[in-house]
């Protein structure tokens, strides 16, 4: 295997100092990285002050219309492009990033969600780094002093405790995935691909900006993305927005949480249960698998519950949504 060392030199160059049940997946071998990632997250220079609150030049925050559930963790998403480069979308609305692009997702918990200023507990930062046409996956676990994160070779568990928005103390064993687990969800055929930043999921008002400009149009104005007329698709509904019809919210939830595996090129291709939002309902097989879906998403048994990766507890709100949807069919 060809090995390429990725280091902070990339950024200097461009101006920026759980097992799987055999009944659920096909016989897909893990996809190996083609590059060796640095041992420390700080080697990338993403967070110059040692926290995730300040970003190095060239890193851009983005938000999604509907977000993945990961044991109630908060997420901060960033992307970085080579100097002067832009990303675009293919005809299906999937993002196309140039070589030397980096996608960054940090998972954390507010110590008290009612008061974010009380601080946060950083858990992990996941990277997708594209070199020579190949996305490389890295998971970095934050140290106890919250000053840096170290690259993991295998998955591990971390006890997390926080006070939620209702003032209730919650504790769980959060699972940080291995590289192989990450590639299971991020695979498309024999390639690794980003999951979240699709055109439909990025086409939303930009939070925290005066007048809330459209996020994609804001990125275009900043010279970060090339847009075609068809890229401004109807946004993926926010599954938590009760003003949106039930079926649209449920399909959006299934798209973000399940469809990356449950697709014709995903890890669960062999199930023939495809859950992409853009698919006609008749082609998803939801009707014929409704009891199976309900059983799997609400099970307390981690060997049965879906999604199999990225969660250790059921999403109570998500389960209620999908249950109401399934029962409406």
Give the proportion of residues in helices.
10-25%
Number of strands: 12
State the end-to-end distance.
49 Å
Structural class determined from secondary elements: alpha+beta
- Strand order in the sheet with the most strands: 1-2-5-6-7-8
Instruction: Please give the radius of gyration in angstroms.
Output: 19 Å
Element string (H = helix, E = strand): HEEEEEEEEEEHEEHHHHH
Taken from the alpha-carbon principal axes, the silhouette is: globular
Sheet with most strands: 6 strands, antiparallel
Q: What's the average pLDDT?
A: 83
Query: What is the number of helical segments per DSSP (H or I, 4+ residues)?
Result: 7
Strand content: 15-25%
Uncertain parts: 1-27
Written overview of the protein:
The protein is α+β, with helices and mostly antiparallel strands and 329 residues long. It has a domain at 9-236. The chain has seven helices and twelve strands. It has helices at residues 9-13, 179-186, 199-202, 215-221, 246-257, 290-298, 316-328, and strands spanning 59-62, 74-80, 88-89, 95-96, 102-110, 120-131, 134-142, 149-151, 156-163, 169-176, 187-188, 191-192. The strands form four sheets. Strands 1-2-5-6-7-8 form a six-stranded antiparallel beta sheet, covered by helices on one side. A hairpin with a 5-residue loop joins β3 and β4. The longest helix has 13 residues, at 316-328. It is globular and about 50 Å long. The N and C termini lie far apart (49 Å).
